[in-house]
Write a structure and sequence with these properties.
Length: 107
């Protein structure tokens, strides 16, 4: 077996570095908590960066038995807002990884 061309070695090293950066970014994201609110703050949801719901807090003032469906809608809205914060942060974290420099491999 011959030696791997220098360009191919560089490409593989860059891929390994990017994989490690991605792993670290995912771990960091998963360790964070994100909050979403709805109904002017009467419902608050907290999720982790990995998408697990940690808590849902509901202001007792909105717990009217005739409004149960509204409270459910507020919980869904708060959780979705928190998950949107995760997605926005993930996009920023992953966007900083850059790309592979294919250099001489393309031409």
């Amino acid at each position: 077996m011959g030696r791997m061309p220098k360009d191919m070695r560089q490409l593989m090293e860059q891929a390994q570095q990017m994989q490690e950066q991605l792993r670290r970014a995912q771990e960091e994201l998963a360790s964070r908590s994100y909050e979403g609110t709805s109904g002017g703050g009467v419902v608050k949801a907290v999720v982790t960066g990995s998408g697990d719901v940690v808590s849902v807090d509901i202001d007792p003032g909105v717990l009217d038995p005739d409004e149960a469906e509204l409270v459910g809608d507020l919980v869904v809205a708060a959780v979705n807002q928190a998950l949107a914060a995760v997605a926005a942060d993930a996009g920023g974290a992953m966007g900083g990884l850059g790309g592979l420099d294919l250099g001489g491999m393309l031409g």
